[in-house]
Write a structure and sequence with these properties.
The complex is a heterodimer. Chain A is α/β, with parallel strands linked by helices. Chain A contains 11 helices and 5 strands, in the order βααββαβααβαααααα. Chain A folds into 2 domains: 7-155, NADH:ubiquinone oxidoreductase-like, 20kDa subunit (Rossmann fold, 3-Layer(aba) Sandwich); 166-253, no CATH class. Chain A has helices at residues 19-25, 31-37, 67-79, 88-92, 104-111, 143-155, 166-172, 198-201, 218-227, 232-239, 250-253; strands at residues 7-13, 38-43, 55-61, 80-86, 134-136. Chain A has a 5-stranded parallel β-sheet with strand order 2-1-3-4-5. Residues 1-11 of chain B have low confidence and may be disordered. Chain B is α+β, with helices and mostly antiparallel strands. Chain B is built from 15 helices and 15 strands. In chain B, helix 11 packs antiparallel against helix 12 (312-333) and helix 13 packs antiparallel against helix 14. Classes of the chains: A alpha/beta, B alpha+beta. At the A-B interface, helix 1, helix 2, helix 3, helix 5 and helix 8 of A face helix 1, helix 2, helix 5, helix 6 and helix 7 of B.
């Protein structure tokens, strides 16, 4: 076997909570093997090494919400072969995107007395500004999906990421349906799987933290929620949480 | 950010400027200048983008507050959830069961184990072993890294068992839990806690022998304290100068000031800066530690009270020992199998509630005001790093001239100090109310 060159991997944090990076470091059993095949050339939370060029794989956690990030994502894109929107913030802006429905000046005044140094604008996924190669959904994405992404890159193939609804995984775990049997407002039918249906397995409704599944059709689910007694405000809050800005949820979230 | 800005870490004779400090959670820089005979100025500059949680929490319902507040921080989501839940429950006068309190305490201790391990081994140890990062340590110190990964995984696995998942758990809700952990799961965790406890003395030895810089100045130590236990999720606000008040009185004692060079505000207690975190907890609540945690403290040469922020590192080791002991005790005292249902909150009247807890990094405050429908009207959140930011700058001022005098690398020394505080910068710019 010819001497292998290690994959050059970068992990960046934009506007977010660092939870996705934490999930990366949760690969405790695999990390020591992973670093035999890849090298982290930029991973600010874990090391001093700061290489700013030629990334094979770049994981970007967090959304774009400042002019500085807008410039940086373009620089990163130019240096990266495979750019990964790492988690819901990088895809749709996630929970902080709730503020996109409020006036920016009101938001700033609610928090700071002197708003003049603030340079933030509405949050958006990195895909709004540069082309993205792979999206890892979830708040946070499950570590298995991170591992699958690295493995496929080593093999030179596209990762097999789940596009089906949480319901599929829920059935595989033989849970009683939270929506039809318990009349709880479960987002499972329109939410992308990957979590292993943990919320229904723990006896509660899915809140939709993996964002929309492919071709999600939220309107019928919204009608069902209404039939179960949900007010319009509650409906909007439900869909305006993890992925209110997504094209799939916009018709209900009211963008 | 421009490329130049990112790489630009340099030391002039009497200046240290780091535009983006590595191996801390989040985005911050430091600016230190020694100006004259033992005098220095320092700025801790947080450029982490703001996320305005307190603004968009307004209009959300009481039962989703903890779920949203969790997203303030991916390192300490459990701390934010526990604090938000207690603040909401205080507002609606919900009394949770002893089992819920015990499971929450276990969940929080799992976060301490996980977060302290990350801080000690991944962020701190490379400085003292002479490496740039955690992955490099593995080359010569594979056993150290293996122990770190095991401890971290143990913390995460407890979080997953109790909370459904470790990062942003899902089963803790207002009034209780949606599901109780399995006995099999707890038995397996108990075994691993015991095993790690046996191995922990290697960690005590490792962090004993490092040569830490020191900051010699007395300051106010602040932590929550309880007569019953080593305070984690509940307690009174106490300090080394004798403050002892209920959590609801927090705002009459702690005030915040904005600074124009940083996205994090500074906090002052009765007008004074203060130090919160592991060092304050071990110092103020030493008597509530287990005997083995005290033994670890002796072996590490930690003598309470300590005011030196570098001693936070040793205090983290002591708290891991404590958490391993206490987690076993909690598991042994759990009486599961009664399928307890969460206590319901009754809306109908406007209300407000506050809660103080000890996040891995220190004091965490949440306060919410609700209207009669249970919708958030106002929110106030102050994180450990916001509490410590004034102390960080004063410590930099005190450390810098000393480093110069001793002919040591000013930049590295200042970075070590920042890492000893283990600031959580995402948290600190969530951001706070006026």
């Amino acid at each position: 076997m010819p001497t292998e060159k290690k994959l050059r991997v970068a992990v960046y944090k934009f506007t977010g909570c660092a939870g996705c990076q934490m999930e990366f470091l949760r690969l405790e059993d695999e990390l020591l093997d992973i670093v035999k095949k890849i090298e982290f050339v930029y991973f600010k939370m874990a090391q001093n090494r700061d290489e700013l060029e030629r990334y094979d794989l770049c994981f970007v956690e967090g959304s774009v919400s400042t002019p500085r990030e807008l410039e940086e994502i373009k620089l990163i894109r130019a240096q990266t072969k495979t750019l990964i929107a790492f988690g819901d913030c990088a895809i749709t802006g996630c929970v902080p995107s709730i503020r996109n429905w409020l006036s920016q000046s009101e938001v700033e005044r609610a928090v700071y007395r002197d708003t003049s140094p603030i340079r933030s604008f509405k949050v958006g996924g990195i895909g709004e500004y540069v082309p993205v190669d792979i999206s890892l959904s979830g708040c946070p994405p499950h570590k298995d999906m991170i591992f699958a992404t690295i493995r496929s890159s080593l093999l030179g193939i596209r990762p097999d990421l789940r596009k089906h609804a949480v319901c599929m995984e829920c059935k595989l775990r033989e849970n009683v349906c939270i929506l039809t049997s318990l009349s709880k407002l479960c987002m499972g039918p329109v939410t992308r799987g990957g979590c292993g249906a943990i919320c229904p397995t723990y006896g509660r409704e899915c809140e939709g933290c993996y964002g929309p599944m492919s071709d999600a059709n939220p309107s019928p689910l919204a009608s069902e929620f209404r039939r179960l007694g949900s007010s319009t405000d509650d409906l909007v809050r439900k869909f305006r949480k993890y992925a209110g800005t997504s094209k799939e949820f916009r018709e209900v979230s009211g963008l | 950010m421009s490329k130049k800005e990112v790489t630009d870490a340099r030391t002039d004779a009497n200046k240290a400027e780091v535009s983006y400090v590595a191996r801390v959670e989040g985005q911050a820089g430091i600016n230190v200048e020694v100006t004259g005979a033992g005098e220095a100025s320092a700025q801790f500059k947080v450029f982490e983008p703001m996320r305005f949680f307190e603004a968009f929490l307004v209009g959300r319902r009481y039962h989703e507050v903890h779920e949203l507040a969790s997203r303030i921080c991916g390192i300490c989501p459990i701390a934010h959830q526990m604090t938000a839940l207690r603040a909401v429950e205080n507002a609606f006068k919900v009394e949770v069961t002893a089992q819920t309190r015990a499971l929450r305490r276990l969940l929080s201790l799992s976060a301490w184990i996980q977060s302290h391990t990350l801080s000690l081994y991944f962020l701190t140890a490379p400085d003292y072993l002479g490496f740039g990062g955690a992955f490099e340590i593995a080359k010569d110190n594979i056993d150290v890294v293996r122990q770190a990964l095991r401890l971290k995984k143990l913390g995460n696995d407890i979080g997953e068992l109790i909370g459904g998942r470790a990062v942003h758990p899902i089963s803790a809700i207002v009034g209780g839990f949606t599901k109780e952990p399995t006995k099999e799961g707890l038995a397996e965790i108990r075994l691993r806690l015991k095993k790690e406890k046996e191995a922990i003395w290697d960690a005590v030895e490792l962090f004993r022998r490092f040569d830490y810089p020191s900051v010699d100045r007395e300051t106010e130590l602040v932590a929550i304290s309880s007569d019953e236990e080593y305070a984690v999720n509940e307690g009174k606000l106490t300090s080394s100068s004798g403050l002892n008040v209920r959590e609801g009185e927090y705002r009459t004692h702690v005030e915040e000031k904005e600074v124009n060079y940083s996205n994090t505000k500074k906090s002052f207690i009765d007008g004074k800066e203060f130090l919160s975190g592991p060092i304050a907890r071990v110092s103020l609540n030493y008597g509530k530690l287990t005997s083995d945690a005290k033994k670890a403290s002796d072996q590490l040469g930690f003598s309470p009270p300590s005011f030196d922020p570098f001693m936070n590192i040793k205090a983290r080791v002591i708290e891991i020992v404590y958490a391993l002991d206490e987690a076993v005790r909690i598991i042994d005292n759990l009486r599961l199998g009664f399928s307890e249902q969460p206590i319901k909150a009754e809306t109908g009247t406007p209300c407000e509630g506050a809660a103080l807890t000890e996040a891995p990094r220190g004091l965490l405050y949440h306060w919410y005001k609700f209207d009669s429908s249970g919708t958030v009207q106002k929110a106030d959140i102050v994180t450990p790093t916001a509490h410590n930011s004034a102390s960080i700058e004063s410590s930099l001022c005190s450390l810098a001239p000393k480093l110069l005098k001793q002919g040591q690398d000013l930049t590295l020394g200042c970075e070590k100090l920042i890492r000893a505080y283990d600031p959580c910068i995402s948290c600190s710019v969530h951001v706070t109310r006026i």
